[in-house]
Each structure stands twice: as structure tokens, then as C-alpha cells.
UniProtKB/TrEMBL annotation:
SUPFAM superfamilies tied to this protein: FAH
GO molecular function, one term: metal ion binding
Protein name: 5-carboxy-2-oxohept-3-enedioate decarboxylase HpaG1 subunit
Organism: Halobacillus alkaliphilus
The organism's place on the tree of life at top rank: Bacteria
Keywords: Metal-binding
PANTHER family listed in its UniProt record: 4-HYDROXYPHENYLACETATE CATABOLISM PROTEIN, ACYLPYRUVASE
Domain Fumarylacetoacetase-like C-terminal: 46-250
Amino acid sequence: MPKAKAKFSGRLQMQEIDVHLNEGTVQWNGSVDSSNYTWDPPISGTVYGTLLNYQGALDQMEDALHQDPYKSPPKAPILYIKPKNTITGNQTVIPMPEDVSELEVGACLGLVIGEKASRVSEDEAMSYIEGYTIVNDISVPHESVFRPAVKHKSRDGFCPAGPWIVERDDVPTPDNLTIRVYVNGECKQENHTGNLVRSVAQLLSDVTEFMTLEKGDTLLVGIPENPPRVKDGDQIRIDIEQVGVLENKVKKEAAVGGIRL
């Protein structure tokens, strides 16, 4: 039974829990009924997203990357930040801007950093990971990756995360996980972390070559190609093997006021 840490609404501290992945329940304080809980995001540090780290996503842009303004494919990880205002928890509502008709789902495995990491070698990279969580890197659809898409990726509530952080040792092969996205109960995307351009360890090593990650930061491994699009009222479920399930609903901003599912 995987061990995890979660933050329940109304409690100041993270709680250690046992996760029953098959049943979709957790065991904590003698209870195994997850419907009794509401979830705060289990992450609190800086969230770094990574672009074009799935081979399919990189292949789709191959021609464009040899033209202006890019001129050549990236030689290092392309990163961006999901600021604090974007972060929300499991079973919360994702606000859709009033002038937008669709949002893009970004199903990501999140690496939660367990200790300060700087110039980490690929061989030792895994020891710097505390655990894994699920992140939905929501975006307003856009095409260019030349400049940071702040207006598209940094809206309030655009980074649901959770429900928990599964301990590193309970996910022994993070480069061998199936990721599925369901919209209104229908599977709209399936991919696999075996398709990453940079493996989990290589990505962490390459990123810390030029910047320090602090304890509590979260590094997203990337978004698979062909991310599903969702509309007002759609229910999103992201299922990552060995990690869990993250669920959120999309609603127009005017209708959102801290609503949970």
C-alpha cells in the first residue's frame, strides 16, 4: 500500500496517509472513506513547467523549430513558472475566463523536490525527489513557445495539483507510467512517461545544471502531445499509474467562488 502525504482543508500540517489506489480511498485517522475529506494542494513551493519534453510534442514542432523565431531545436529544457495564484487542489473548480471558449488540459507528473538540488548528476538525481504528484497544467490554447505564455498559463486556478504526494520509493519506475485523461468519463488522451525526451533523472540533472531547486519545489516533466480541450461544465479526470487520480471541473469565472465538486 503506497505511503503518501496530503493536506486536508482546515488543517495546517501535511498528514501521512496510506493510499488504496485500486479503491480510490485513503486511510488516515482510522478512516478509509476519502469522501469525508476536502483537499488542499499538497505542494507549496515554486512549480516549474517543462515544454516539449514528450517526443511526440517535440516532433509536432520539428519543422517550426528550424524556422524563425526559433532557428533550431532547444538544447536545454524550456521552463516556465506556474505562480502561486494558479495552484489549487483536487476536486476544486477551474475558472474559465469569460472571453475564452476552450481550455487545454496539461496532464503532468510532478516531481516534488525533497532537498536543495544544485548541479545534481543524473546518477544521484532520484535521491533528491521526495515523491510524485499529479498536476493539471491548464492553458488557454496557444501555439508559440518562443516567449513565456504568461497570459495563457498563469490565470487563477490554472494549476490543480494532488490529491497527495506519493513517496518516491512507492513509484520505483517513474519513466514507466501510463497517463490517461478522461473528460466527462470518456478517455481523451493516453500516453506514457517512457516517451519523455529527457527521463526523470536526466531532466532533474539538466535543470539543476543552471538553476537551484529548493525543497518543496515541483518540477513538471512535461505535457504529452495532443492535449484534450475542455469547455464550461466539463469534468476532468487525470489518472497516473501508481500515483493516483486528480479530478476537477471547469466553470466560467463568473460562476466560480471557491466551489468544490
